Amino acid sequence: MEDRSRAGVRQTYERIGDHFSKTREYAWPEVESFVADAAAVDTALDIGCGNGRHAELLASVADRVVALDASRALLTEARARVGPRVSLVQGDATTLPLRDEAVDLAVYVATLHHLPTAADRRASLDELARVLAPDGRALVSAWSTAHDRFDASADAEEGFDTTVDWTLPGGETVPRFYHIYAPAEFERDVEASDLELHSLELSSGNCYAVVGPEGKVP
To answer: Quick count: other Cβ atoms within 10 Å of Cβ 33?
Structure first.
């Protein structure tokens, strides 16, 4: 039976991490564009870093990169990819182990939708706001009802919870929890958090928000 908890999500990626990493070689174009538009910064953060493909990008513009994931298996894959230039941390997106206003640039990609409750997702957005410097920026993404694999409307007001199976070599399937966001719901969640929404777009079935910390003065 699927365990719909943060610990359950972590265990899923401990089981599939090695195989999952082999299918995630390249950075997403939307992340490449976001990082390419950024000025050089002191500290960057990758929340839900997986095998380090986006932390590798951040290292091109940041003096220091912190890459966090709940899965030790994925962090092992990331270490082989990024080497010592990135600080890898096993941690939880709802309680980031960083001081206030420590981060100048962040990506939080394809991870928010794995958090099993609305409270968890809101806590993680508030944590991102807490660690961003006053002039910091972040890119947040999540799967949406606009994705063509779901029989749902991009105009829906609410998303839904589901599982998407991962098939391991040998045929074993492992269910992965997702909250599939309606774009309007994603926008509401970001705006209800301590983040300030700068821009929002749909691309390849995902919601993307560029955000900063609400109310902080650079």
So the answer is: 13
